């Protein structure tokens, strides 16, 4: 009897009464871009929604095979390996909101650089980089909706929801690994522009206070300066000054949550419009002059292109709300 022809994905019908969708046996050939991945991570990417414990269990029981042999979860896959994934019942996905054509067009128009390996987008303020925490979708979901044929789109790094500016999105797994490794080794240079309260002293060129994440009584996550926190370093340069405010360039050497915002606040010069780390009086004063956003913008990125090794510098213009505040101060 002839053996059945293998395909990349064979979907079986759901059994009556099953609690979710059950995919049939899948045979996947590892391409060079997937090579080097651990088997458990490879499976989790393809069995989204399936509990991690269940994935480890089917590997231990020998239901997952690589080149017809039993393997461990930490096995590193090689290009050309054939991975057998057994039928697995997945939980039903709740129906989620689909980004509309307008928001898709906005995000496509915000692309400032694109090649085969990555996209770089000038993210608008007010849009999260990904959905969750009550948000139906974010930057990455909008891009995936706008590019349904894209095989791979993943965030390389993140920006706070209210921070605008440059974000890298990998189009290949190899590019994601390369750029995240560059970030870990501090080979990606990020430069932010921040409008801060008061006159920033030109002599303050860096802040190195340790930062600790903590949780508010309402569950909101914040960051504070604390000796028990992680070492953190931000370099500063004054770009311009006006009555009551300064425009500074902030270049984070480390990449802690809210690093620039907390380092600015701990010097006595919080970022204008920061409703987490600016005092109420300062926030009211900024709002009274028409300010309606966090005045923090990821202005420039300097990094090596995956594969080529060529250095690239990209800059993103301010949005209209940021420009209007600066124009009013320059007045």
From TrEMBL:
Residue intervals of the RNA-binding S4 domain: 37-94
Catalytic reaction list: a uridine in RNA = a pseudouridine in RNA; uridine(955/2504/2580) in 23S rRNA = pseudouridine(955/2504/2580) in 23S rRNA
PROSITE patterns for this protein: PSI_RLU, S4
SMART domains given in the database record: S4
Source taxon at top rank: Bacteria
Keyword S-adenosyl-L-methionine belongs to the record: no
Protein keywords: Isomerase, RNA-binding, rRNA processing
Recorded GO MF terms: 23S rRNA pseudouridine(955/2504/2580) synthase activity; RNA binding
Entry EC number(s): 5.4.99.-
Catalytic center residues: 160
Matches recorded under InterPro entries: PsdUridine_synth_cat_dom_sf, PsdUridine_synth_RluA-like_CS, PsdUridine_synth_RluC/D, PsdUridine_synth_RsuA/RluA, RluA_PseudoU_synthase, S4_RNA-bd, S4_RNA-bd_sf
GO biological process terms on file: enzyme-directed rRNA pseudouridine synthesis
Family in the record: Belongs to the pseudouridine synthase RluA family.
Entry function: Responsible for synthesis of pseudouridine from uracil at positions 955, 2504 and 2580 in 23S ribosomal RNA.
Listed name of the protein: Pseudouridine synthase
């Amino acid at each position: 009897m002839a053996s059945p022809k293998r395909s990349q994905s064979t979907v079986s019908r759901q059994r009556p009464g099953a609690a979710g969708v059950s995919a049939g046996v899948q045979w996947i050939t590892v391409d060079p871009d997937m090579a080097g991945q651990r088997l458990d991570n490879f499976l989790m990417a393809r069995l989204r929604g399936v509990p991690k414990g269940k994935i480890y269990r089917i590997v231990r029981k020998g239901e997952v095979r690589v080149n017809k042999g039993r393997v461990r979860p930490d096995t590193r896959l090689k290009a050309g390996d054939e991975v057998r994934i057994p039928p697995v019942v997945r939980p039903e996905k709740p129906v989620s909101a689909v980004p509309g054509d307008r928001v898709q067009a906005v995000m496509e128009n915000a692309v400032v650089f694109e090649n085969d390996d990555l996209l770089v987008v000038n993210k608008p303020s007010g849009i999260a980089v990904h959905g969750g925490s009550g948000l139906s979708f974010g930057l990455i979901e909008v891009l995936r909706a706008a590019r349904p044929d894209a095989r791979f789109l993943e965030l390389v790094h993140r920006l706070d929801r209210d921070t605008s500016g440059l974000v890298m999105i990998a189009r290949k797994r190899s590019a994601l690994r390369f750029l995240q490794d560059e970030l870990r080794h501090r080979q990606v240079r990020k430069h932010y522009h921040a409008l801060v309260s008061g006159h920033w002293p030109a002599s303050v060129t860096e802040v190195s206070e340790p930062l600790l994440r903590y949780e508010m009584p309402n569950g909101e996550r914040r960051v504070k300066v604390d000796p028990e926190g992680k070492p953190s370093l931000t370099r500063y340069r004054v770009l311009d000054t006006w009555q009551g405010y300064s425009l500074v360039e902030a270049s984070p050497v480390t990449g802690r949550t809210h690093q620039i915002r907390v380092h600015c606040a701990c010097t006595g010069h919080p970022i204008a419009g920061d409703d987490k780390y600016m005092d109420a009086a300062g926030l009211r004063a900024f709002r009274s002059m028409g300010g309606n956003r966090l005045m923090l913008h990821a202005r420039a990125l300097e990094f090596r292109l995956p594969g080529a090794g060529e250095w690239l510098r990209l800059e993103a213009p301010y949005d209209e709300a940021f420009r209007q505040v600066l124009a009013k101060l320059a007045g």
